[in-house]
Structure prediction request, 145 residues.
Amino acid sequence: MYSEKVMDHFTHPRNVGEIENPDGVGEVGNAKCGDIMRMYLKIEGDVIEDVKFKTFGCGSAIASSSMATELIKGKTIEEAMALTNKAVAEALDGLPPVKMHCSVLAEQAIKSALLDYSKKHNVVIPGLEDLNFDDEDHHDLIEND
Ligand code: FES
Prediction:
């Protein structure tokens, strides 16, 4: 049911933890399963120098956050903004359909942390304006997959 990559990132998650004095922190949750993901960013110029996460959730959410941190570390803000949940799932060699929403949390946690960064540092990040992370039910995104 789960790919080797999912199992690897679930059992040996990369970039777990917190960043002291982060430039941006984002937390998102899924109202239906109750899982919560928190993402910390260290940003220099427009490059994500470091990223760490804490996920209180299922194995797919942990694997998704681990993979997502690997995919954006050392990348630009623009590249991080372009990371979709589908790309995270593909990098994990797929997730079962009922677990796709776990990868949505990873995408949203990154964007939520970037939103926090943009507010704190007065930086405009194109693409963030329309996002509303106060909406607890993210399932509308999933059903589009
Ligand atoms: Fe909800 Fe995985 S079951 S995040």
About this structure: The CA atoms of residues 48 and 73 lie 6 Å apart. Helices lie at 4-11, 59-72, 77-81, 85-91, 100-120, 139-143. The first strand starts at residue 24 and ends at 29. Confidence is low (pLDDT under 50) at residues 135-145.
